[in-house]
Amino acid sequence: MARAISRRIRLSLSFPSADHGGGRRRAQPAPSPRPAGRPLGERLGFAAALVLAALLGIAPAAHADPLAVRVGVLRQTHSRDTISILDIPAADDFVAGAKLAMADDNTTGRFLDQSFAIEDVKLAPGDDAAAAAKTLLDSGIGFLIADLPADALLKVADLARAGRALVFNAGAPDERLREEDCRANLVHVAPSRAQLADALAQYLIWKQWPKWLLVVGSHPEDVALGEAYERAARKFGAKIVEKRTYADAGGGRRSDSGVVQTQRQMPVFTQKAPNYDVLVAADENQVFAGYLPYRTWDPRPVAGSGGLMPTSWDASHELWGAVQLQNRFERMAHRGMNARDNQAWVAMRMIGDAVNRTKSADPQAARDLMLSPDFDVADFKGVKLTLRPWNLQLRQPILLTDGRGTVSVSPQEGFLHQVSELDTLGLDQPETKCKLK
Asked: Which among 238, 308, 318 has a CA at the least distance from the CA of 42?
C-alpha cells in the first residue's frame, strides 16, 4: 500500500499529460486558449498528493532521522545591459526556478521522510566561484546547481569531484564542456550551442529557407555561436550566402542607440547582401540582434539571437500542460519563467526524483540512476527527457519562440535518428570527443 501511494504521489508531481510522457513525439497541437481560473492539471497536481493522504487517513512518515538534502546553487550575476528592459535579469534570476522545484520536491518528501533545502550563493563578476563551492562542499553539500562561465564551472567540477559531489550545469552552453573538457560528475541541463543551432536549422530547412545571411557579433561567445550555426548549415544542407561581423562599439544599449540612430544603421549594415531567405544572428551578448527585425534592408525574417529564437524555455510557452508550471512560477516569483529559471528547475527536480527513488542523498547513487534506462525527466515539452550517457547532456526538445508564443518545437518532423529523434540536435555519439573519467 505504501509503495503504491508513494508511486501515485511521485506521478502526481510529474504533472503528466497525454503528450507529456514518452514515446515518439506527436505533431504539436495548436495552442489552446488559457482556461479561466486555475488549470485542471494544476488543481490535480500537488493537491492530488495531499487529498489522497487525507482521504486514506495517512500522515507523513515520522522517523527519528529524516533524510535532509541540501543543494548548493552557484550563480554569477548576468549583465543588466540589455537591449530590452524586459530582458534585464531579476534579482532571483535562475535561483527562483530551483526554489520552485525545491517546493515540488518537499511536497513529495513529506510522505517519504525527506526534506530539501537550498543554499543560494550569488557571485559578482570577478568573485572566486571555486572558493564559494569549497565552502558549500565543506559544509556537507553533495549537489551543486551552477550558472557559471565555462572556466569557472570546470574549476568547480574538479573541486567537487574530490568530494564525490555532483554538479549540474544549468547555464553554460559551451560545446567544450560536453566534449574535450567533459567531466564525469558534470551533468548538463542547459542545452549546448549545437543543440540550439540545430533546432533552428531544422525549422528553417522545413520552411524551405535554405539561404542564410549570417551576422556574428565580435565577442568570443558570439563567434562560438556563429560556428555552431555554420556547422548546422552544413549538417542540414543550408547555404550561408555571406557572413558578416557586427563589431561591438560599446555604449549604453538602451540610451545611446536611439530609435533614429538604429533605424539608420541597420538598413545600411544589411544592404548589398546576396539574395537570402533569412538573416541568422549570432549575438549572445545582446548587442545588436534585437535591433534587426523590421530594420533590414531587404524584407526578410530574422532568426537566431533575435526574431525567431531557439531556447530551452520561454515565459510564453503553454503547450503540453506547461501553463500550470508557468502559473505556479508567476505566483511565486511575480514574473515569467525564463530559460535559466527552467533549467535550474529541471536540475532540482532531477535531484529530488533521484533521492526519492534511491532513498539516499549519495551523489554517486543519484548519478547511476540518472544514467539508467529507467530514469527520465518531465518538463512539459511533449516527450521524456533523458541523459546522453556519453557526455551527460540532457536530451531535450528546443522551443522556437518569438517571445509571444511557441512558433514551433524541434526536432522537426522528418528528421529521424536510430536511437532518439532528440539526438538529431547537437553532436551525436559518433562525433563526440568526450571521454568521461
From this structure: 318
